[in-house]
Amino acid sequence: LALDEATYENYNKQYLGWQGNTLTSPPAYRGASGQWQGTPEENLQMMQAAAHLYGAPRLGAIEVNDHTKRLFDLGTTVWEDIDTGFQDSQGVYHIPTKCRWIVTWIVKQNYAQSLYS
Q1: 86: helix, coil or strand?
Q2: Which end of the chain has fewer CB atoms at under 10 Å, N or C?
Q3: Distance, CA of 89 to CA of 91 (rounded, Å)
Q4: Is the distance from CB of 112 to CB of 58 less than 8 angstroms?
Q5: Residues 18 and 93 sit within 8 Å (Cβ to Cβ)
Q6: For 65-79, what is the HEC assignment?
Q7: Mind listing the pLDDT tens digit for each residue in 104-114?
Q8: If DSSP codes are grouped into helix, strand and coil, which group holds residue 94?
Q9: CA distance 25 to 88
Q10: What distance in Å separates the CA atoms of residue 95 and residue 86, rounded to the nearest whole number?
């Protein structure tokens, strides 16, 4: 239900920005019991199931460390001791240092689509 509503709300939007669609109602609004509380392994399995539902053949997680932080463009990404990430007016992403994992996934596309991506 949450994935269905999130997809419907985001359909045909040109740009949702860093925060995504803030108009989607929270799960509690639809009668969900509360926030998901699982182990990191269970959380990854839940993300893999959601990605599979949308057609992604593979999903994984990478731990953020000093090496992976160097993979981000210098000047466009700043790691700070803040509670919530945001994008400023210059387009710089401010990411909390408490964010420890990056989720990555593969998307299938046919040859014709790959010519234009």
Answers
A1: strand
A2: C
A3: 5
A4: no
A5: yes
A6: CHHHHCCCCCCCEEE
A7: 998 887 778 77
A8: strand
A9: 25
A10: 7
